């Protein structure tokens, strides 16, 4: 038998399946919009993806989709931002140092080829991107969950 604490922990950690599906659809829509914008030349830059990552985590909290799916969704947005631009540059052959096909970074350095840039983006998404996803995922989840609780209480009180 599951104890109440076990059920509460499971609900917090992994949420329910319907909420996870909604989160997946939300993230897929965000990534599809980002892909279309990038391919049309409307790339907004790294700040947009930081805000998008935090928003995904807040949506996970508001939907009560679970912290782990929220962090995973946040990391998938981070992974996209680090790997999609170099992948497009690699496939099209349009890559150049410090171009829109480079992944976002704080230091002003670039790799010597599109393939190296793509590998660097994958490496950065696992190291920096994963840390960013955990931090933004947890904080964003708490914010979204808090907003949801506040709204639920306001609706219940009249």
Automatic annotation (TrEMBL):
TM stretches of this protein: 21-40, 46-67, 79-98, 128-147
Keyword vocabulary terms for this entry: Membrane, Transmembrane, Transmembrane helix
Domain of life per record: Archaea
Protein name: DUF2062 domain-containing protein
Organism, scientific name: Halosimplex aquaticum
